[in-house]
Structures are given as structure tokens and as C-alpha cells.
Design brief:
312 residues; 13 helices; 78% helix; mainly alpha
């Protein structure tokens, strides 16, 4: 029991550390977005992330193999990942850090919708209600005017939708491919695709300090991804997934200290509703999986008794 608690606490610590690292990366994005084209930031974020992602792949050992039957899906996920990062970085440039972070949380709502469309998962009344309430939270965050067409909000929601599609597709990929392989292919494809778009932007040559910041985008983002995989490795999703929302705390603190941005009451209220819906859906998913596992165990025990009776 103590060992289990130790692993849970370790997983939780990894998740908090991952969210903090991602937030620091976002701070660097917001700080440099005014000096460099967004496409250039996206390239550095993807290209240098290959190094930590390769280490994740190597750490998986023989369990991970680069052989795959789903290369088209890997190419699609990596390509869409470039578009998602472009939207996310644009939202960080336009919106206060906490606002952009809060709107990105809506990806959990899109995950539920795409799981129904792509994975054919059942949508019960509870899930539908949670998604509806979550999108009400989005309208609250967008202020009473419902200004969802604001440029920054629009880019945030587009990022959330694309990110959710990629996550659902990755979930389907992991049925055959090791998660470390999925992460590595994603980094490689996204790096190649983002490099293709560099000629269409106005390249800005960084100085020494700026180059360090750009390098940190990729290395820090890849390291945060490693911490994320360790979190889910050591603790169940129902424990660590809600801790992703700690990134809002860091975003509020960094935004207030560095740019003097303080979240509005509408943002906090709407974000709380979105987070509550996300936590609820994570809990429901965990409960459903636990029930399925218990039913399977009972069936196996019943079959064992039948076979024992026949053999006697």
C-alpha cells in the first residue's frame, strides 16, 4: 500500500513539474513572439524537441519499434501538430498568458466529441451534459458579450480542437505502436513540416541570448513531454490528469509578474466550469474502466470454477 502511494505521489510530482515546464516554455513564446515570426518559433519548438523525444524512445527499450503499419496517420498527426502549435503560439502572442491557457483547456471537451466520431465511443447523458456545460464555460470566459470571434480566442479554440483530434488519433495509434514511438514520430514529422514553411516567413537571425531562448523552446518542450509520460507511467490518469490544470496557476503568476496581466472574474468562473467538467469526465472514464476490469475478473473466476467442476 505504501509503495502504491509512493508511485501515486511520484506521478503527481512529475505532472506538476511537466505543467510548470510547459508554462515556462509558453512564457518564452510570449516573450519572443514580438521579435520572431510565429513559424520560426514553431520550427525551433519542434526541431529541438526531437532530442528529448528520442531519449523517450530509447528508454522504452525493445518494447518500442519504429516499424509501423500506420505511417499515414503519423504523418497526419505531425502535420496537424504544426498547425496546432501555430494557433497556440499566436494566441499567446495576442492574449494574456492566463487567458490563452484557460481557453486551451477546452481540448478535453473536443476529445469527448472526437472520441465519439472517430473511436465510436458511447456518449451517455452525463458526457453530453458535461460537454455542454464546458462550452458554457467557454462563453463565460469570452466575457458576457460572447466575443468568441476575438482573434486570440479563435486561435485558442482552433488549437484545442486540433490538439484533441491529434490526441484521439494518438490513442488509436497506441493500440499497435508503443507510445514512445508515437511521440518520436510526431516530433520528427512536425519538425520536417515546420521546416517546409520557413521559406514563407521572414527569417530573423537571433543573437546569442535569443538563440538560447529559441533552443529552450524545443528542449524544454521535449523535456516536459518526458515528464508527462513519466506521470502517466507512475500514477493512474484519474489522479494526474486533473493536475494539468495547475498550469493556470503558473500562468496567472507569470502573467501578473512579467506583464501585469490579471485574470478577470469571468475568466476564472468560466475556467472553473471547464476544469470541473474535465475532471468529471476523467473520473467517469476511470470508473467505467474500473467497472469493466471488475466484470472481466468476475467472468474469468466464474469460467475457472466451471472448468474446475468439469475436470473433477
Amino acid at each position: 500500500m505504501q509503495g502504491h502511494q509512493h508511485h501515486v505521489l511520484k506521478g503527481a510530482a512529475f505532472m506538476v513539474a511537466a505543467m510548470f515546464t510547459f508554462c515556462v516554455v509558453n512564457v518564452v513564446v510570449k516573450d519572443t513572439a514580438g521579435s520572431f515570426p510565429i513559424l520560426q518559433l514553431v520550427f525551433f519548438r519542434n526541431f529541438l524537441a526531437i532530442i528529448p523525444c528520442y531519449l523517450i524512445f530509447k528508454s522504452a527499450g525493445r518494447a518500442a519499434s519504429l516499424k509501423t503499419r500506420h505511417m499515414p496517420t503519423h504523418l497526419l498527426c505531425g502535420s496537424l501538430g504544426v498547425l496546432a502549435l501555430y494557433c497556440l503560439f499566436t494566441s499567446f502572442h495576442v492574449l494574456p498568458l492566463a487567458d490563452a491557457t484557460a481557453f486551451s483547456y477546452t481540448s478535453i471537451l473536443f476529445v469527448t466529441l472526437f472520441s465519439y466520431v472517430i473511436l465510436k465511443e458511447h456518449l451517455d447523458a452525463w458526457r453530453v451534459s458535461a460537454v455542454a456545460l464546458g462550452f458554457m464555460g467557454v462563453l463565460i470566459m469570452a466575457k458576457p458579450s460572447g466575443d468568441v470571434l476575438h482573434t486570440g480566442i479563435f486561435y485558442s479554440l482552433v488549437f484545442a480542437a486540433i490538439d484533441a483530434f491529434v490526441m484521439v488519433s494518438a490513442r488509436r495509434l497506441t493500440k499497435d505502436d508503443h507510445p514512445a514511438v508515437v511521440v518520436f514520430y510526431f516530433a520528427c514529422v512536425a519538425s520536417f513540416v515546420s521546416a517546409l514553411f520557413l521559406p514563407f516567413g521572414n527569417w530573423v537571425t537571433p543573437d546569442g541570448a535569443q538563440l538560447l531562448k529559441l533552443c529552450f523552446l524545443g528542449l524544454g518542450g521535449g523535456f516536459a513531454q518526458f515528464l508527462l509520460t513519466q506521470a502517466f507511467r507512475h500514477a493512474p490518469a484519474v489522479v494526474v490528469a486533473p493536475l494539468t490544470y495547475t498550469s493556470l496557476v503558473w500562468s496567472v503568476l507569470f502573467g501578473a509578474v512579467l506583464w501585469g496581466d490579471f485574470p478577470t472574474q469571468q475568466l476564472l468562473a468560466g475556467c472553473a466550469l471547464v476544469m470541473a467538467c474535465g475532471c468529471f469526465m476523467t473520473w467517469r472514464e476511470h470508473k467505467k474502466q474500473s467497472t469493466f476490469a471488475k466484470d472481466l475478473l468476475l467472468k474469468n473466476r466464474a469460467r475457472k470454477k466451471v472448468f474446475e467442476g468439469l475436470s473433477s
